[in-house]
Design goal:
The complex is a heterodimer of chains A (about 120) and B (about 140). By secondary structure, chain A is mostly helical. In chain A, about 85% of the residues lie in helices and about 0% in strands. Chain A has one domain. Chain A has four helices and no strands. In chain A, helix 1 packs antiparallel against helix 2, helix 1 runs antiparallel to helix 4 and helix 2 runs antiparallel to helix 3. In chain B, helix 1 packs across helix 4. The chains are: A mainly alpha (about 120), B mainly alpha (about 140). The interface between A and B is medium-sized, with 19 and 17 residues.
Chain lengths: ~120, ~140
């Protein structure tokens, strides 16, 4: 799997997470349109990662745990919309905190994806 | 009495949902690929998955019955993570493979250990009358 894509996703996640912390501190809720643009770009990167990950899995010689790997690729795409939905329903700091949980989940899953790929060896 | 799914409850729902998905996925993969390798560990993964799913659903639904069911599920979860966490250190032979609760949920940043107690706290806190309402009644 391509490392730069994981780095891109992690960077976007970090930007969104930092922004979310700022929103919690300033008590700005629900998130504004510009925030959702960042979240949209993150979602796009995750979709690209899903396609790229499946292609990489199909063409690699590595013995990757395929079922787990693909489940992670698919599930991680669902996290940002889930967080966004909670942030829109709960129009308070707690909604932003729920969004932060979703973003932390994306970060954790990226690390796990990379570990699954690396564990399979070259 | 506060709605279970509002305010801090929303964060709890988010975390519980993540763990429901993670534990369900984990137990399905474990039981689907090699169930004989560590039946106890995989069975516990499945139990954890069911408890997380029940807790998530109850937190979302709210109401009297959901509160009662959630209290049972979260209590079993608290006992489970402490017992399995302790056993995974003391009786390593019991667990050839990991569960969500092994080593107090170390693989998940120890969140499985914190989560049930946060759940119990929220079930209690949200059941109390709100401070604002109490003032209104007195005024």
């Amino acid at each position: 799997m391509t490392g730069w894509l994981v780095v891109t996703v992690l960077l976007l996640t970090a930007v969104a997470a930092a922004w979310t912390v700022l929103m919690i501190v300033r008590d700005e809720s629900p998130p504004g349109d510009r925030f959702f643009v960042v979240l949209g770009v993150l979602l796009l990167a995750l979709v690209v990662q899903l396609v790229g990950g499946v292609v990489a899995l199909a063409t690699t010689d590595r013995d990757v745990e395929a079922v787990t790997f693909v489940s992670y690729l698919v599930t991680v795409v669902l996290a940002p919309p889930f967080g966004a939905a909670l942030a829109l329903v709960e129009r308070s700091r707690w909604g932003s905190a729920a969004l932060l949980v979703a973003l932390a989940t994306v970060a954790a899953m990226e690390v796990r994806l990379e570990a699954l790929w690396a564990a399979a060896g070259a | 009495m506060r709605e279970l799914s509002t305010g801090p409850g929303r964060v709890l729902v988010a975390v519980y949902a993540v763990f429901a998905v993670a534990a369900t996925g984990r137990s399905l993969v474990q039981l689907g690929t090699d169930p004989g390798r560590a039946p106890l560990a995989y069975g516990l993964s499945l139990l954890a998955a069911v408890l997380y799913l029940v807790a998530t659903t109850c937190l979302l639904r709210g109401g009297r019955t959901a509160r009662r069911v959630a209290l049972v599920a979260v209590t079993v979860e608290a006992v489970g993570v402490v017992v399995v966490g302790t056993l995974s250190y003391l009786a390593t032979g019991l667990f050839p493979d990991k569960t969500v609760w092994s080593h107090f949920g170390q693989g998940y940043g120890f969140l499985p250990l914190v989560l049930p107690f946060l759940g119990l706290w929220w079930l209690r806190a949200s059941a109390a009358p709100e401070a604002g309402n109490r003032l209104d009644v007195r005024g």
